[in-house]
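It is worth pausing here to work through a concrete case rather than discussing structure prediction in the abstract. The textbook approach is simple: state the sequence, then state the predicted structure, then interpret. We follow exactly that order.
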Amino acid sequence: MCYDYFNKNNIIISFENFLCLNYFVSLREEEYMRYVISDIHGCYREFLALLDNIHFSADDWLYVLGDAADRGPEPIKVLQDLLRRKNVTYILGNHDYMFLYFLGRKGLDLADKYLEDCVPEDIADFRMWLEDGGITTAKQFMKLPKKERIPINEFLENAKSHEILREGEKTFILVHAGINHFHEDKPLKDYEFIDFIDKRTDYKRRYYSDQTIFVITGHTPTITIREDHLPKIYCENGHIAIDCGCVFGGRLAAYAIETGDVIYQNHISSKK
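Step two, the predicted structure:
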């Protein structure tokens, strides 16, 4: 059962198996905490507020399931913040992949080229990316001096396709979107990179028969998964879906591996 606590800062904390008033005491009894978040999508203020909510420290570790950029107001600030931190593991998302393809050094590198130099198919795809939220990212990135673009490229180039975490008897598989062409006996290392970043998870299907294995995903806003259409995490059938649609007016969520607790930060309106 989950209980929501609303404090004066409009912070929402969901508790799994913990009493509301014991949350922060029990949380910090751990020597360190591992948190999983996803789909920040340029929501820089909400991201910083969420880190403050969880009292994120240099002793903790943050796993980001991709798509820090695009759609929201400050995607480059989010990426620059993440790459400066020494305690972050970044897993590539589909929007990150598109960024690298169009603006990356190993892609088309359009930050230093003219569209006229590209084939028509790439021009059409570039426009589609811009329309799907890439316009703000592209504008902000191209305004950066070249020396400031390089660390962003390197950060995303070094991103992972997936991560495996263990806590007690539980195993958590972290991916951006899902596991395409899934077979339970197929090792994760045998999948293609693209299998983790674009194809949406079938949340009605349990992937692993082992009840102690959980797949944590972003990519699909939980309001489209949950029957009540609320911007809360979805935990069913061995899935933990954590993209609560902050950029669409929902929430940014942090899932704590050690405790199973979920901490939310509401979308912050840009209106005064």
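Step three, interpretation. Residues 1-28 have pLDDT under 50 and may be disordered. The longest strand covers residues 11-16.
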